[in-house]
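TA notes, week 10

Several of you asked for a full example with nothing omitted. So below is the full record: structure tokens for the whole chain, then the designed sequence directly under it. When grading your own attempts, check the secondary structure regions first.
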């Protein structure tokens, strides 16, 4: 009870230091606690700066820094670590799901539970070696959205294979990614390209326009023409120039006809469950493909009499070579990894790499990711643009950060949090619609919108879920570090031994947590308040003092903004 009372007094202090009201001055410090052992020698300031820079990179390029990953970046250098990650092969969510099938004795023609797919995501996010690849795959999953909230919601393996496809393409060429997304049977089911038929006036059949529209609006070029720096191009009347119209949508819809599950035939084309196969790319059934002439973007004409595959290749090339793709995709990747409001110059530099990676190759996503992470704005943004640089951490990434920072394990060997949307208002591949959990152009009312800025992740930061997120942190920190004796424990447990070893020195502990959790971004005011808070828990056990401090930091407004 004593701990809860003190917590209730300390949380407002942290909030006041972060702009939440009250005095800017720290409360008077309590008498110092006598140390039983002398503190370790002070750390070199240069090493602290290197550690902070490493932690900042890992906030952007992984699922959260840990002491081990910070050391890796410091040893390799930021550029060296990125290059190493670009060469690290992909982990497989589908392999994890199949192992769960074998473990549970589920037959091949039956689905394993949705929780197994989510466990795979936690496992790889927390312990996978391919951190950058998986982090980019997560970003792509929020751009090229499919959601389990569809007809295939029980197809755990099929959904996992879609995620693996994103990871496999994360550093490949965007043109290949676009084709793999287009021919994914999961995407085909989600946006109803699968089973799309050529027009038949007598039978009142018209090609489905769903995928044709979203592939342009959300996956490639957006609604209006852009300059290479992401700014909107205007016509002679100072109005945005649309990228496409209804006629172009209809042209693409006719391109995307005749595709079905692999193995489908003209006789079985409409027998959905007979053909069901989400483990292989879709294949064409030519009898259902529209072979007429089609007009696409920029008046490009697909000639009549071609096969479905020929039409598709031309259509995807037409999209891929549109000048919008570089700035449209580059800016969204910057927003999801680095900062919500990149400067036009930053977008232009990264989009230019998309347009030409230096070797004459367009669409090299590995080069794009490297460029956006190593860019001067990504590395120096907090100091160069202190008022606009940064982004709200996605709730799922707060959880992965907590568990990676404090070496999470599970006594039963499985990371069981099968329904994270209860706490976080999001779960992997479970968005409420094709528009993701939040829009890249979302502007919260008030100071942000008044300055013409966006803050996409704030769209899911509701009162309900902020409270649930805080409850998750409370339980995971205060009760998540010890196994319950005599019981089978399926919780995800953190290891605070490294932090408890620093408990005798508030200075050393706060420096450690500042780097690990805030990449050195803790303000002097916040540090002073946390120091006082720590001193006020002097009679607590070391583990309780440490957990109190971790909870206060991760619940603070300063922490939730990634800089």
């Amino acid at each position: 009870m004593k701990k809860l009372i003190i917590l209730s007094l300390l949380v407002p202090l942290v909030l006041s230091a972060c702009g939440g009201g009250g005095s800017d001055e720290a409360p008077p410090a309590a008498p110092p606690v006598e140390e039983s052992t002398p503190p370790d020698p002070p750390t070199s300031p240069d090493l602290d700066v290197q550690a902070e820079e490493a932690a900042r990179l890992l906030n952007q390029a992984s699922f959260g820094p840990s002491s081990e990953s910070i050391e890796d970046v410091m040893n390799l250098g930021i550029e060296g670590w990125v290059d190493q990650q670009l060469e690290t092969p992909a982990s497989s969510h589908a392999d994890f799901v199949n192992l769960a099938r074998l473990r549970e004795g589920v037959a091949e023609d039956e689905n394993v539970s949705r929780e197994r797919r989510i466990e795979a995501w936690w496992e790889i996010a927390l312990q996978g070696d391919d951190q950058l690849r998986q982090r980019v795959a997560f970003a792509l999953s929020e751009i090229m959205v499919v959601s389990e909230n569809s007809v295939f919601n029980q197809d755990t393996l099929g959904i996992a294979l879609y995620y693996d496809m994103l990871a496999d393409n994360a550093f490949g060429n965007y043109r290949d990614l676009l084709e793999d997304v287009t021919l994914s049977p999961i995407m085909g089911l989600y946006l109803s390209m699968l089973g799309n038929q050529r027009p038949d006036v007598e039978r009142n059949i018209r090609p489905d326009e769903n995928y044709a529209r979203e592939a342009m609006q959300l996956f490639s070029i957006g609604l209006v023409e852009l300059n290479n720096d992401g700014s909107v191009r205007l016509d002679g009347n100072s109005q945005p120039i649309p990228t496409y119209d209804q006629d172009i949508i209809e042209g693409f819809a006719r391109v995307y006809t005749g595709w079905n599950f692999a193995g489908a035939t003209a006789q079985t084309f409409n027998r959905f469950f007979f053909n069901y196969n989400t483990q292989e790319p879709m294949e064409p059934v030519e009898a259902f493909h529209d072979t007429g002439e089609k007009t696409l973007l920029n008046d490009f004409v697909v000639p009549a009499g071609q096969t479905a595959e020929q039409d598709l290749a031309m259509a995807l090339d037409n999209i891929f070579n549109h000048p919008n793709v570089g700035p449209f995709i580059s800016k969204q990747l910057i927003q999801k990894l680095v900062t919500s409001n990149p400067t036009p110059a930053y977008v232009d530099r990264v989009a230019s790499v998309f347009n030409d990676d230096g070797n004459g190759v367009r669409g090299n996503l590995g080069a794009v990711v490297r460029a956006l992470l190593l860019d001067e704005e990504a590395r120096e943004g907090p100091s160069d643009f202190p008022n606009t640089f940064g982004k709200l951490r996605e709730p799922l990434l707060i959880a992965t950060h907590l568990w990676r920072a404090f070496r999470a394990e599970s006594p039963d060997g499985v990371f069981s949090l099968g329904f994270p949307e209860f706490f976080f208002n999001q779960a992997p591949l479970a968005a409420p619609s094709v528009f993701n959990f939040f829009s890249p152009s979302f502007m919260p009312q008030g100071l942000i919108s008044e300055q013409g800025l966006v803050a996409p992740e704030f769209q899911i930061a509701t009162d309900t879920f902020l409270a649930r997120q805080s409850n998750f942190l409370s339980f995971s920190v205060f009760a998540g570090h010890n196994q319950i004796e005599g019981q089978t424990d399926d919780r995800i447990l953190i290891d605070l031994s490294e932090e408890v070893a620093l408990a005798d020195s508030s200075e050393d502990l706060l420096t450690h947590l500042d780097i690990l959790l805030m990449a050195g971004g803790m303000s002097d005011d916040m540090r002073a308040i946390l120091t006082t808070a720590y001193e006020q828990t002097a009679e607590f056990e070391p583990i309780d003092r440490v957990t109190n401090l971790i909870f206060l930091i991760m619940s603070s407004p300063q922490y939730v903004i990634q800089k």
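Residues 191 and 210 are 6 Å apart (CA to CA). Use that as a sanity check on your answer.
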